[in-house]
Amino acid sequence: MQIEIHNLTKVYSEKRGLLPVSLEVEKGELIAVIGHNGAGKSTLLKMLASWLLPDSGEVLVDGINLANRLAVVRKVGFVPETPNLFDFFSVGYNLKIFARLFQVPFIRMEEIMKEFNLLPYRNNKIHVLSKGLRQRVSIGRALLADPPVLLFDEPTSGIDFDMTKEIYRLLKDFHASGKTIIFTSHRPEEIKTLATRIIVLHQGSLVFDGSPQTYFQSDLHEKLYRC
Amino acid sequence: MLIKNIITLTLNDLAIALKNKTIYLILFIPFFVFLSLKLVDSADTVFKKINVGLIQQETFAPVILQTIKAADKVFTIFPVANEEEGKRWLKEKKIDGLLLRSEKERNSLLLVVLKKESLLTLSIVESFSALQKAAEGNAVNWISDVRPLHAGEIQKQTLPTWILMLVLLVSFIIMPAQVAEEKEKKLLLALLQTPMREIEWLIAKLFLGMILILIAVLFLHLLGKFDPGNVLSYVAFIVVGSFCFSSYGILLGFLCRSQASARTLGVMFYLPHLLPSALSDFSQKLTSVAPFLPSYQFYEPIKSILLEDGSMANLSIEWIYLLLVGLVTFFFSYRLMKKRWLM
To answer: Using CB atoms, which residue from B19, B186, B340 is nearest to A88?
Structure first.
């Protein structure tokens, strides 16, 4: 197993969050975590990315406890819903400073810019870019250290149709290259053909874990998403 | 890797300070202080009963002594054992002036005051003049000379207050906002996605605060051409003060979720640290309260070094106190960062 999640819990003061959740993820899976707002999707991903510390439970990545941040930091890349970049600096600067901290050669930064079509924007400040372009920089940054596990929190939120298609294409490419991908979405119809596995969270609890075919054939989807 | 990461993060912080115009503020404040010092005028307190120190064993002219003692609605006489004790009382604001026998003119007095160019000094001299007229008519002035306790012009006398203001401004207004901004924009979390250690980020932030403070103080000295007195002691206190208060400011930033709340909290700490220390020169009550504040433990040594030729050798307790406050606040910031406090 590449990722083992044991009784992971995070409860906020408003009694929202994530109730004990246990999961196992195999290498090369492409998992969509779906659910309504406040279901606990982002909380789960943020805990996997070490953005949030769990109240209880543990996560192992390749057998290493996530609490040992420095040992797993190169194994997990996280792309948050809102790109968190140094807005007043250029695309090149943003990638360069993280390349330095990841101790990867600058040639890797050039590769990333080429791969994500960011070369024309190398000297553009982040705050003048569209959300879709910022998201591409954010994904590029997450890939600098070439982590085997990639986490995407609502990767298509607030971006246009073309960019959404582009993001889905990227997810497929990463999956084809053997990476393990977990992403959240509140638009289950869109991920019907994308994910190899669907996890459904509802009010902090795991209510479904299986293939997309099983999920869409079950009445759970109808129950959760009926208007 | 520790040093390399710290340098990378410090340079990044300085680049941010340049981009968000903080560096201009750092240069503007000393410039504003310099201009204010150029325009500074005397201002002091309203008239009250004047406390005068008289050396017990000193032989003053009998007419002067009798007249001062008779004017008990104007003066309160405080007998002091010697000149040293008198000067100490003056520093502690127990007395407003110390009367010594003038060495220049027989039967005249030398008045030692805290600040020569002040209304209080003026009122003491005026009161003596009135008493003298009543006792002797238009004879030679009893007070032939007025000497301030601290040497140097008024610009230099107010310099410790300005230095304290600069240090606290960077530490309590700029640093908390800088830290909170990185938390609010989730930039700190992005940095924590790299192999950077928490302590490297904290040291880099500490360096940023210290560099900004050193730039501001140096710029002020270059503009005003102020003599720092004992340079080594002065630098030692500026460095330990910038360490202590930068660390303090970083901790305040960690206690806030957003820049706006960090600014509010910063002001709430800035004024209570600035005013009691800076105004302790004018109030005995504040002098008894202010020593509990780290700002006072920074202000008094700086004042002593700049105005009284003080040195590290006599101020080691204050230096260690500031170092300890810096280390304790640094430790708490580290704990909060480890806990991802309000991130």
So the answer is: B19
